[in-house]
Write a structure and sequence with these properties.
This protein is an alpha/beta fold and 328 residues long. It folds into 2 domains: 2-183, Rossmann fold; 197-321, Rossmann fold (3-Layer(aba) Sandwich), CATH 3.40.50.920. The protein has 11 helices and 14 strands. The chain has helices spanning 6-20, 44-48, 60-72, 91-98, 101-104, 151-163, 213-225, 244-254, 269-281, 303-309, 313-324, and strands at 2-5, 24-28, 53-55, 76-81, 114-119, 144-146, 168-173, 180-183, 197-200, 205-209, 231-235, 238-240, 257-264, 290-294. A 7-stranded mixed sheet has the order 3-2-4-5-7-6-12, with helices on both faces. The chain has a 5-stranded mixed sheet with strand order 9-11-10-13-14, sandwiched between helices. A two-stranded antiparallel ribbon has the order 1-8. β2 (24-28), α2 and β3 (53-55) form a beta-alpha-beta unit. α1 runs parallel beside α6. The longest helix is centred in the first third of the chain and has 15 residues, at 6-20. The protein is globular, with a radius of gyration of 20 Å.
Length: 328
């Protein structure tokens, strides 16, 4: 094990997989000489050349479509979309082509396509560069959705995505790129999809924390522990497939649950998780299912207003305190 950043974990995985398999390529806006708008692709173009690390025109439709075609012809493309806000531009390619090609071919067409997408608010980037669109695509069968929240999971889940045979939306939270953590040095280290992680044990309240909300959930848990409220923090790691059993086991244990994400509250990923809990574990609940999420307005530019709209650590603390009062 060694300590690296979330960003380094993604870069290293791409470098290792490209060295291992000549069919792995990287395409996207400014991923080559510039090294990626977030600096994640670094020197990959120097290591592997412009045939395998290709800068594209500013057209998300073309980028995703090229990735799909390359995947269908036997390559393992990694596509970078620099802002998740731009994904709707490629809506038809993604929703009607990428997600459905394997099904409509009767399984004959494999689609080993990994689409790396940044998500979340990086701070004063305003309404068109700060959204968390993960939940939009949970309604599209045929897509897998990964939401890594640690450097180790960034590495392990990305390797699983690249080596898989299905299209994956790999959401990277912009505010996690500098996060440091221990990562395995095993060149084959991978994290399976559909396997959540319990990041902190607790008995009073479950917090299902998605992506960038994980650090805030762990911080809130520390504050609440000083008050005698023990919070169990569950990190889903992937939204599709979703590890229902780990979430439900935690809910049965604590009888109280909060679902936290940076996406907007209305029809965000927490809505699906809350519905699943209501359907399969309502008899274990001693209080309402609480969602801590962004308010249903476009993300503002002003730092003060942005902090007001986005869920904060204190929102989790307040929600947990409220739930802890339920004693049935």
């Amino acid at each position: 094990m060694r300590t690296i950043t979330y960003s380094q974990a993604i870069y290293e995985t791409m470098r290792e997989e490209m060295a291992r398999d000549p069919n792995v390529i990287l395409i996207g806006e400014d991923v080559g000489i510039f090294g990626g708008v977030w600096g994640v692709s670094g020197d990959l173009v120097k290591l592997f050349g412009e045939d395998r690390v290709r800068d594209t025109p500013i057209s998300e439709t073309a980028i995703v479509g090229a990735g799909l075609g390359a995947a269908m012809m036997g390559l393992r493309p990694i596509v970078e979309i620099m802002f998740g806000d731009f994904m709707p531009v490629a809506g038809d390619q993604l929703v009607n082509q990428v997600a459905k090609a394997r099904y409509m071919s009767g399984g004959k067409a494999k689609i080993p396509l990994t689409i790396r997408v940044t998500t979340g608010a990086p701070g004063s980037a305003a309404a068109q560069h700060s959204q968390s669109p993960e939940g939009w695509y949970m309604n599209v069968p045929g897509l897998k959705i990964a939401v890594p929240a640690t450097p180790e999971d960034a590495k392990g889940l990305l390797r699983t995505a690249i080596r898989g045979e299905d299209p994956v939306l790999f959401f990277e939270h912009k505010m996690l790129y500098a996060l440091k953590g221990e990562v395995s040095e095993d060149p084959d280290f991978a994290v399976p999809f559909g396997q959540a992680a319990v990041r902190r044990q607790g008995k009073d309240v479950t917090v299902v924390a998605i992506g960038g909300m994980l650090p805030k959930a762990l911080e809130a848990a520390e504050t609440l522990a000083a008050e005698g409220i023990e919070v169990e923090v569950v990190d889903p790691r992937t939204l599709v497939p979703l590890d229902k059993e780990t979430i439900l086991a935690s809910v049965r244990k604590t009888s109280r649950v909060i679902v936290a994400h940076e996406a907007h509250k209305r029809l965000g990923p927490g809505a699906e998780i809350a519905a699943m809990i209501a359907e399969e574990a309502i008899g274990y609940l001693d209080g309402p299912i609480v969602r801590v999420a962004a308010r249903n307005v476009p993300l503002p530019y002003s730092p003060e207003l942005e902090n007001y709209v986005l869920p904060q650590t204190q929102d989790l603390v307040d929600a947990a305190r409220g739930l802890a009062k339920y004693r049935l």
